[in-house]
Amino acid sequence: MPYNGPQIESRYSLSTPIRAEAPAKLGVLGRVRNWVRNSAIAAAGIGTAAWILSVGMNLTLTPENMFGNGKDLPAPYELKSTDRQKWKSKIVSHLRKSGDFGAIAKQEGVSVDARANEWADTIIDSMEAAGIPMTEEKLKYALILLHRESRLRENPPINMTGAYGRIQVEIDKRLDKIAPEKGDLRDFLQKNVDFFEDKYGERIKNAKTEKELDEVMAELRFGVEELLTVTATLIPEEHMQKLWREFQNRAKVKTFGALQVGTRAVQHYYEARGEWWVTEAEARERALTLRPNLEVGFTLFNQALEAYRGDPNQVECAFADYNAGLYSSRNVGVQMMAAELSGHDLVLDGDLLIYEAGRVAQVTSNSKRAIWNIPGLKGNDHPTNPDHYFPDDGWRGSYIKVSRDLRFEKTKKFEQTRLYKYLEWKYQRVTDENIPTCTIPTASDPRARIKYGKDFNTAGYVRDSMRHVRNFSW
């Protein structure tokens, strides 16, 4: 939407060059000095405009890379041949004992030994490339993740028969909200729902793998986008935006492959490794390929383990973060603190912001609203340490600072922001306790009821994972 507010007059225009004063009368050094000065002014103007548009409108910001930069990831390495053979024998021995693994080998028409050797090599290659030390403990967690996420399948099978019926119920609910009364709009939308069901319904129900389902859903999203464009004048804008956000969020396969990694995690990982050009389509292909899938998945879990080093619940919180997103267990502590200090009720899911297509959504999350309403945050109350201080420079300035720091909520760097330090200080001052740093998210994923027909939350995932840890044997 174009900006129709007050216009700002300026003596400078980015469309016209800034001229040096009397360049003909200046020497070489003077002309160079003016050129540098004017270039700096132009660059500063462009930079400031870009900063205002991105940070001031924080809603279109891209969150920080969850893996940080290349320096934050361990360097790849290569095992000695004798060490590699020792670890490979250990992995192969474990895989041979797995009933799931043997059954899959039979389905694929290959021997258990051949499949076990192939997977063992890929597991070792992935850990080497990710820079994860090859220890018995790290390898145990890697194998447990493979059992938990896919039962040792490169492209796990899916069953959409039950889920499809639940999807139809959800669609009817949305229609009732958008067009509760019978009439032209309801008839028009119902006819289009029937059209899409006739065209894609059987393909969705019969999809056997995530890859097949994702291909169908990509076609469906394109068709629905065209429909929403046609109906833009018929549906109220607030309904239209909400409908499209929800559809984009749900009508998409989120995770892929043996370790169920998402395309955003793949892009962030390879960007941190220096491959900043990986597109979403290429990230999907890598997520569907065993070697890069394991490399990213192992790194995610290792990052989570390192995040809670020294905590008595380190392993539990690492599994929780693998299921709910990196640093979710830390962020639940922030949500608990924000709820207590602001008086707001919050769902403890570990997400401080809402995201759409990898960017911060144009919707203020309940967690952000609670943080913003903590008494004293806007500058009336602050610790002596200036690193913790949010200057009382007006609503806009403080809100931008809070929004900027929340961008780091899925990274380790969030703990170094002024916002986090302020919250630590505030919580300790009010409760005489330290802010919780490792708490399992308790919220249920609303998509789980559609997918599985029952509630499924991170706490349940952690309990099941710890059962695997206790029962693990080589």
Please give a handful of descriptors for the protein shown:
single chain, 474 residues, mainly alpha, two-stranded antiparallel sheet, 19 helices, disordered N terminus
How does this structure look, described?
With 474 residues, the chain is an all-alpha fold. Among the domains are: 1-56; 161-256, no CATH class; 314-431, no CATH class. Helix content is 59%, strand content 2%. The protein is built from 19 helices and 4 strands. The protein has helices at residues 28-56, 81-96, 99-108, 112-130, 136-150, 161-178, 184-206, 210-230, 237-250, 263-272, 280-287, 290-307, 314-324, 328-342, 366-372, 395-406, 418-431, 446-452, 458-471, and strands at residues 255-256, 261-262, 355-356, 359-360. It has a two-stranded antiparallel sheet with strand order 1-2. Helix 10 (263-272) crosses helix 11 (280-287) and helix 14 crosses helix 17 (418-431). The radius of gyration is 26 Å and the shape is globular.
Topology record:
Elements: H1 28-56, H2 81-96, H3 99-108, H4 112-130, H5 136-150, H6 161-178, H7 184-206, H8 210-230, H9 237-250, E1 255-256, E2 261-262, H10 263-272, H11 280-287, H12 290-307, H13 314-324, H14 328-342, E3 355-356, E4 359-360, H15 366-372, H16 395-406, H17 418-431, H18 446-452, H19 458-471
Antiparallel strand pairs: 1-2, 3-4
